[in-house]
Design a protein that fits this description.
- The structure is a single chain.
- Helix content is 36%, strand content 24%.
- It has 350 residues and is an alpha/beta fold.
- The strands form three sheets. Strands 2, 3, 4, 5, 10, 14, 15 and 16 form an eight-stranded mixed β-sheet that branches.
- The structure holds S-adenosyl-L-homocysteine.
- The site of S-adenosyl-L-homocysteine has 20 residues, from helix 2 and helix 3.
Length: 350
């Protein structure tokens, strides 16, 4: 085999050449490499997501969006937009449910990984791919979905020093990547309720996530539509470090072998909601994924599927439990809805 330089080698050379980089840049470079070079999903991969657990997840997303579209007066020219569609499983399940409800949207995927674009094309061949939202045609209502997309977007880390705040940078020490003090961050940039945090406190912010929330909101307000954002995270920004690495379904060290494990951080739903509301969108939730799926009728869907395939009765029960139970994904995962102000309220939020 020809010698191939690893991403860690390339990052070490980059830092040696131009000095430490900020955490957001480290995370962006690591994840771009990680997703570009593999399909990380499922039991044989690094982590499993809700749509990979059961078809019920995507079907209920599709039904919720189709219901909203019906109540909005069935406008024409709808575009289904999914951010980070993984294997395309959620989209395939959602589109099947939408078609059964009379909605046949054009399909747009925002995806940077060539490997995952290939997997998505196998399931949803009619899709059109984008690197980001800037190339999405500027017409027609948008029904947008993002499941475990925002948690993969880069976060900045800002550390309290006792006499102020500093951006955390990443330096190299021997073979390891280590945190290093970066430039000072003005106190005015730190939210009031955490400004007096004790020395060592880490704050995370994700400018890339806020930019996506604003763009989605603007796009929805312009021509109507809605967005459903599902992810794990907190309803209100709190101090503390949540950046983590996952590999082979186990926690790994985010500072070792960048690009070989999935780097994620808790999604700050409060800031996302605020950014979308400031842009003019109506905000729904966040609510717990378990409550949302129960309100959307996951139990009835499970029973219907089990009636048609009695041999799946037990596995459907296990899958429902994984999605809904507070001990599993039911509470940690939150759902945020955005709608155009003139559109009706989406189901599942109250
Ligand atoms: N939504 C899928 C996959 C979640 S994994 C599911 O629930 O199974 C994260 C997804 O986001 C992958 O498809 C990954 O390639 C994509 N992704 C991560 N960062 C991205 C970025 N900056 N731009 C576009 N896509 C990105």
């Amino acid at each position: 085999m020809p010698y191939r330089r690893t991403l860690a080698d390339r990052l070490r050379r980059l830092i040696a050449a131009q000095g430490p980089i900020c955490v957001a840049e480290y995370m962006a470079i690591a994840n771009a490499h990680y997703y570009a070079t593999r399909d990380p999903l499922g039991a044989s991969g690094d982590f499993t997501t809700a749509p990979e657990i059961s078809q019920m997840f995507g079907e209920l997303v599709g039904l919720a969006l189709a219901d909203l579209w019906h109540r909005a007066g069935r406008p024409q020219g709808v575009r289904y937009v999914e951010l980070g569609p993984g294997r395309g499983t959620l989209a395939a399940d959602a589109l099947r449910a939408m078609r059964a409800a009379g909605l046949e949207p054009k399909v747009h995927f925002v995806e940077t990984s060539p490997v995952l674009r290939g997997a998505q094309a196998a399931r949803v061949p009619e899709a059109e791919w984008h690197d980001d939202l800037s190339t999405l045609p500027d017409d027609g209502p948008v029904l947008a979905v993002a499941n475990e997309f925002f948690d993969a977007l880069p976060v900045r880390q800002i550390v309290a020093t006792g006499s102020g705040w500093r951006e955390r940078f990443v330096a190299v020490e021997g073979d390891r990547f280590v945190p290093a003090a970066g430039p000072p961050v003005p106190a005015a940039a730190i939210p009031l309720h955490v400004r007096d945090a004790p020395p060592g406190t880490v704050l995370e912010t994700s400018p890339a996530s806020l930019a996506y929330a604003r763009l989605l909101a603007r796009r929805i307000i312009m021509h109507g539509g809605a967005a459903l954002i599902v992810d794990y995270g907190h309803d209100r920004l709190s101090a503390g470090e949540t950046l983590q690495a996952v590999r082979l379904h186990e926690y790994a060290d985010p500072w070792i072998e960048p690009g070989e494990s999935d780097l994620t951080a808790h999604v700050d739903f409060d800031s996302l909601a605020r950014a979308a509301a400031e842009a003019g969108a109506a905000v729904h939730g966040p609510v717990a994924q378990g409550d949302w799926l129960l309100r959307l009728g996951i139990d009835a869907r499970r029973e219907a599927l089990a009636r048609n395939a009695p041999e799946r009765h037990e596995s459907l029960g296990i899958a429902t439990n994984r999605l809904v139970s507070p001990q599993q994904m039911g509470t940690l995962f939150r759902v945020l809805g955005l709608t155009a102000p003139a559109w009706p309220d989406p189901e599942g939020f109250s």
